[in-house]
């Protein structure tokens, strides 16, 4: 049974049911994950990690709560969460049965994402900091700034600092990023919109095709420009023409998205370089050079 021993009695007591099976689920880069089957027939989804930063799983639970409050795209219900020393750090979630994607599901997801992206706030960021992967994501220090300033100061600079500490962010790359500060801010501010609820880590692996409907998992929620979600959807895959047609028909993007997309995806290339190194460092360097050529 693939399950931390100290969590078994806690879960059984919480649900007043015996765990009859815990199956390891692969595919995650940050957490261990298991599907738990109870004797009463219910299934649960457990994510856990032996060592996590303080508030790690609580931040995920809060992000899921924010997405659920938008009443747009389905997210799993949170049953329990802990990141302290009282037990193995974990988040216990509703298990969502898998389904298929396909053209109609892509269109449905586009409509639901538009609905989520019409959930807005007055300022950027969030009322608490959280995480992207296992890295810190800062949301509270520049909330009254414009989108360009917020993105540069709270997304790019913290990851550049981590990259310098880990040795891959060279002096030359850092100099280029600093030199692009004003052009990046100006470009992002040229397309103003109200701060929109974002998933924040919206690549294909975090869109879960449930049996009944598309769902979102593993959020890094904040209020930002919706182009940030859409840009990342295209960095490591392609959401498809059917998705784009439906989304853009309902909520069109302003001219220049292709240019801004590369700026916005600098953040995700940096987080991946900080977590995994390797080819992501080269991809970041190449993307930065392309942006430098714009200006």
Describe, in plain words, how this protein is organized in 3D.
This protein has 295 residues and is α+β, with helices and mostly antiparallel strands. It folds into two domains: 7-94, Phosphorylase Kinase, domain 1 (2-Layer Sandwich), CATH 3.30.200; 103-294, Aminoglycoside phosphotransferase (APH), C-terminal lobe (Aminoglycoside 3'-phosphotransferase, Chain: A, domain 2, Alpha-Beta Complex). 43% of the residues lie in helices and 16% in strands. The strands form four sheets. A five-stranded antiparallel sheet has the order 1-2-3-5-4. The longest helix is centred in the middle third of the chain and has 20 residues, at 147-166. The model has no long low-confidence stretch (mean pLDDT 94).
